[in-house]
Amino acid sequence: MTRISKTTLTDKTASLLRGNEGTSLVLVSIIAIIIITGVIILRVTTSALWASADKQYNQDQAYMLATSLGESLDEAILDSNSGINLAEIGTVNDTAPGMAKGTVTIQVTSSGSNYNLEVRAEVANATYVYTAVYSGSPGSYTRQR
Q1: CB 128 within 8 A of CB 137
Q2: pLDDT averaged over the chain?
Q3: Could you tell me where the DSSP H helices lie in the chain?
């Protein structure tokens, strides 16, 4: 195996580029295309990652909003001293404080002797629903599921 000197290789490359005027233009064009393609690929990749992160963030906020309110309502309903009457609640809509695109809907429907509680939280394009079923009367509700 023969050893190639770096100075000889650079000298050959320099003489090739000096001797052919179009060769250096083609070489610069190829390098520019490679750099621009790399920048475009990085931009598309980061946009996709940010969109995925935003979607997950909105889903997490909707989940936390619905479960937090649902569990708080659950404790209040099961508390015999609260005086909450599920038959009188119906539907309640509100916006989530601190969230520009967040809304919460509480809906209680009755089916026979059971009351179905549904807490629906919507943040941007993500939705989470917390549900619970109760039976009984005010002051003595029990949770079915």
Answers
A1: no
A2: 85
A3: 6-19, 21-78
pLDDT digits (tens, 9 = 90+) for 78-119: 887 777 888 888 888 888 666 667 889 999 998 888 899 999
Q: Which residues, including other chains, have CB under 8 Å from residue 84's CB and lie 6 or more apart?
A: 76, 77, 138, 141
Q: Which residues pair with 110 in a beta bridge?
A: 115
At 33, the pLDDT band (50, 70, 90 cuts) reads: very high
Short-list 134, 145, 118, CA closest to 82:
134
Contact status, residue 84 vs residue 94, Cβ threshold 8 Å: no
Alpha-carbon span 61 to 98, nearest angstrom = 11
Distance CA 70, CA 98 (A): 19
- Estimate the crossing angle of helix 6-19 against helix 21-78, to 10 degrees: 110
Residue 29's SS3 state is: helix
**What is the residue extent of each domain of the chain?**
6-143
Question: Count of H helices and E strands in the chain?
Answer: 2, 5
pTM of the model: 0.66
